[in-house]
Amino acid sequence: MSILNAPIRILGCGSPLMGNDGVGIKVIEALHETELKDLKDVDIEDAGVCGLDLLNLLDGARKVIIVDAVLANSPPGSVHRIEGKDLLDGVEFHPLVSVHDLTITDVLKIGEQVQELPEIVVIGIEIGSIVTEATQEISPDVLKGVDKAIKLIKEEVFSSL
User: What is the per-residue pLDDT across 119-146, written as a single tens digit (0 to 9) for each?
Assistant: First the structure.
């Protein structure tokens, strides 16, 4: 059992030191300023750069919403909603690729072999290209996706409570 206890968990992935890759963390920071922070059935967590550690954060949740930077060949700041089960089944509506070493799909496929997975929804924000130099700056185009992502996350949470 996880130390996190809420049935709905929102996890932001990314590195705040790698520019646009930190957009998932930026969404988590913004969510801490919304009414969601006061809901007892919702956890809002910075999951860092994830990898296999993400599996521990899935424990004990009924639903997990993962927010991450993605490369999906769409305009920067575009927001994509992807069902975790579609990723596991190999159905990808966009050429979704995480900017981390392991994609979210890779982690979920490993996870389904070793544990029971909750309902998973991925909110991916298009960043346009991989960041190769350290910076804390997120481009204005990518930041436009933050408000869209928050709106989608609120819809997910309130439809699940």
Answer: 999 999 999 998 888 999 999 999 999 9
